[in-house]
Design a protein that fits this description.
The protein is about 55% helix and about 15% strand. With about 775 residues, the chain is α/β, with parallel strands linked by helices. It folds into four domains: about 30-205, no CATH class; about 305-370 and about 575-710, 3-Layer(aba) Sandwich (Rossmann fold); about 395-570, Heat Shock Protein 90 (2-Layer Sandwich); about 725-785. The strands form five sheets. A five-stranded mixed β-sheet has the order 6-8-9-11-10. It has a five-stranded parallel β-sheet with strand order 14-13-15-16-17, sandwiched between helices.
Amino acid sequence: MLRKLKLGTKFTLLLTLVFLGGICLSGMILASAMQHLAEEDVSTKAEILAQTMNSVREYTDNSINPLLENQLLTAPVFIPETVPGYAARQVFEQFRTHPEYQSFLYKEATLNPTNPRDQADEFETQLVEQFRQQPQKTKLSGYRPIYGETLFYIARPLKVTQQNCLVCHSQPALAPKSMIQTYGTKGGFGWKLNEIVAAQTIYVPADEVFMRVRHTLTLVMSIVVTVFALGVWLINRFLKGTVIQPLKQLTAIAQQVGAGTITVEQVQGFDSPDIIKVAQRADEPGQLARTFQYMAHEVATREQNLTQVVNLRTAELAASIKEAETARAKAEAANKTKSLFLSNMSHELRTPLNVISGFVQLMMRSGSLNSQQQNYLETIRRSGEHLLTLINDVLEMSKIEAGRTTLNETNFNLTALLDWLQQVFQFKAQSKNIELTFVLAPNLPKYIYTDESKLRQILVNLLGNAIKFTPKGKVSLRVSIVNQQPLTLNFEVEDTGLGISQTELKNLFEPFVQTESGRKSQEGTGLGLAISRSFVQLMGGDITVSSQVGVGSTFQFTIQTQAVLTAQIEVPKTNQQVIGLIAGQPKYRILVAEDKAENRQLLIELLTPVGFEVGCATNGQEAINLWQSWQPHLIWMDMRMPVLDGYEATKQIKAVGNPTTIIIALSGSAFEEDRQIALSTGCDDFVRKPFRTEEIFDKMAQYLRVSYLYAVESNINSTNNYTLTAQDLAVMPATWIAQLQDCATKVNGKQILQLINQIPASHTHLANGLTQLVNNFDFEKILALTK
């Protein structure tokens, strides 16, 4: 069969086999290397976790226990917080609240435990024995199967290094009575100083380790496949161009000679630059070409046929038409690829941003944060909103190239925007010891009418560049009025930074062009100034720059706008924090259809504490099954899911004709066409990620007529002092007081605030007093009141 194949096909087949072999070999090598790197990454995290827990153990043993030694020996109730192992485990549980540690498991596996849950199994017993037999070993790691699952483990020896440990673990007679009453005397005694008593073992599901390998391997192999494919394509192209194509040309002309139809023009084909180039070669194709040249000239000296010219021109025209069609097809494919890329980038950027923004909002709803922590979260929230604005603006770069970018003009507070900019960049400037000043003209209008988002991005780009390229000195923003009619504002950003050379200024505003300083900083894409210039021109102005190397730069631009009266500005509604549902309403069932675990968790933790009954589905098919069996009142439907996407799931649910279930689309897309598609498939509404928590509650109130309970407004900085006594709490039921005591013991301010909202309106003094204690983190006072 191979003998029947053409030479070009054989070359292609051989190169393909080499390509596949190289890919397979590279995949095996990379897979092994990536797994090793993934295991090292998990081991590093486990090392950090173990060191942190051991530090807490030592602090508890050296600092907490000596302070409470007498109380521990006489206390009727055992206090687990004073146990180093318990404190270390609590630190571990705090680590698990972070996404990268969620799947980690921890066990202090010991052969002689005080708490039976720490009893080492057969595998862990072998680990302890290895550490005892080889004291120089500080770590063991590997894989172990357990309960049908494979776990990756990292184990370290736990040695008794503190004399204080022997108070509780040497003899039952010396141990605290409360501990004996809690755990008995069967285990945990007879420990000796410098003895290895346990193996600190951290487990991670092997699937997670392999998942990291798969993700990284997919990316690397994509690059390797691309490089291999490009190499094969180039080699194949070279072989065909140097061997196959000349042979084809010579074969075609030889067939014409054999048919007796060769003309003068055809003979000239043997004298073409391509054939002459081949004929000059010393190899077999060169010898063959020279033979054909000689033969053709001998046969066609008397033949002349003008029709060959027509045929040649016709062939050239056909080739030109084919090339034009190919170019058009490539352009259409490039446009489709670009649109798909922008859509995917929008979704992939906005989805994790939704998780960040959502959990920040959940933390801000907690009543256990002090004012400084609230300020930190507010800064993160504002920066997240700005990041979302930047993502949207970058996605509009394609519209700039197509000339379809438009202004989204609104009335907004210019002074507030400038204050926000100063607050955002002040910290960065202070960190570099740079003086940042804003100089505003006294007659500057407070409110103007233009595109706030685009003006913000222009100023962010210019101020960000100024601070980035200013090692010392100052950065200034000056805003003034150039003309009153039409109102023209002038903005100048001046710095004392590195400056820009005159040779670089002429191309400064071109896309993807960076200055020498920008390339050295290895930051940015070179799009910021290009986008800024396009936005400024769209707003009726232009941007210029003057600069001197070593002295600094000044960017200046103007925009045309108009002043707005205060009466024309809509006063934003104050958002009250929803904490519950008013009694007497139905038990609302809410289904969250979302394939990303982080997004599901966000909505669950947002809706469940309020009082909604929440169900979850990880794909569209599960959503349909749960809808049929559970009949939720409302579905939050993600549009991109495996198995069955949100569009098809919505179609099938709505096709049944049941109008009672509300479906609201959740999407990371920033494109209006995706919103229209979602609504056309049957969704009742559309919410973009990242969303605000108020938007979620407002939509459910709009479609389900839900009535909410809102948090009691309290001013943390209030000067009112509320003095409470145990008698004040007597108006509440005993079960309520017990819950309050439990929450105060756990330092759970959020739960306490929810309990406060159950206090009748006639006892506002009690509600205000407890709220003030929570805001001041005075949980000991609350405990004293409950006792």
